[in-house]
């Protein structure tokens, strides 16, 4: 057992965990942040994507101890109170979800994608290529891609700023 401490959604947290505890299980079981989903537990589906120090990471492929001292942002940390993050709002507006299981991971991957490429600098081919590690079994990706492109354009116009984790 070891003590791990990190910042999650701008809040300092600590817990004693087994060395083999995955970040996904730390978030869900120790912190009660169940918006990050366990899909495959083999890093194939992307349902568990969170941001670690500003970069998209599949939290089922990282030990909680490896994240010690890091800044973690989960799907719960994107919205600013009742104001949705622009990517969340675009998924809602463009129906970029169906059952919703993959949606948190898709949104976290999309926010990272927009940050890396810059708002307004995405095209459909890039979005589709970058979503390769995120599986959706419902939508066929068309509305997901439309939502990400719309969010990128909205953010480029300055209508809705990405919330930075504290």
Fold and architecture overview:
The chain has 166 residues and is α+β, with helices and mostly antiparallel strands. It is 32% helix and 15% strand. The chain has 5 helices and 5 strands. Strands 2-1-5-3-4 form a 5-stranded mixed sheet, sandwiched between helices. Helix 2 crosses helix 5 (142-156) and helix 3 (103-117) packs across helix 5 (142-156). The mean pLDDT is 93.
In the sheet with the most strands, the strands line up as 2-1-5-3-4
The profile of the biggest β sheet is:
5 strands, mixed
Query: What portion of residues is helical?
Result: 25-40%
The separation of the N and C termini measures 28 Å
Mean pLDDT: 93
Structural class: alpha+beta
Shape field: globular
- Alpha-carbon Rg, integer: 15 Å
Helix-strand layout with pairing:
Layout: E1 2-8, E2 11-17, H1 23-30, E3 49-52, E4 55-58, E5 71-73, H2 86-93, H3 103-117, H4 124-130, H5 142-156
Parallel strand pairs: 1-5
Antiparallel strand pairs: 1-2, 3-4, 3-5
In summary, what is this structure?
The chain is of the alpha+beta class and 166 residues long. It has 5 helices and 5 strands, in the order ββαβββαααα. The model has no long low-confidence stretch (mean pLDDT 93).
């Amino acid at each position: 057992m070891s003590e791990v401490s990190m910042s999650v959604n701008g809040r300092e947290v600590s817990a004693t965990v087994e060395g083999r505890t995955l970040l996904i299980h730390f978030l869900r079981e120790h912190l009660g942040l169940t918006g990050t989903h366990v899909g495959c537990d083999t890093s194939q589906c992307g349902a568990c994507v969170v941001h670690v120090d500003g970069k998209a990471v599949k939290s089922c492929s990282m030990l909680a101890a490896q994240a010690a001292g890091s800044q973690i942002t989960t799907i719960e940390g994107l919205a600013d109170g009742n104001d949705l993050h622009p990517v969340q709002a675009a998924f809602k507006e463009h129906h970029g979800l169906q059952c919703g299981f993959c949606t948190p991971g898709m949104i976290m991957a999309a926010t990272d994608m927009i940050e890396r490429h810059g708002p307004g600098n995405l095209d459909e081919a890039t979005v589709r290529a970058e979503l390769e590690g995120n599986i959706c079994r419902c939508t066929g990706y068309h509305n997901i891609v439309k939502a990400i492109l719309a969010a990128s354009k909205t953010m480029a116009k300055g209508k809705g700023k990405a919330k930075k984790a504290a």
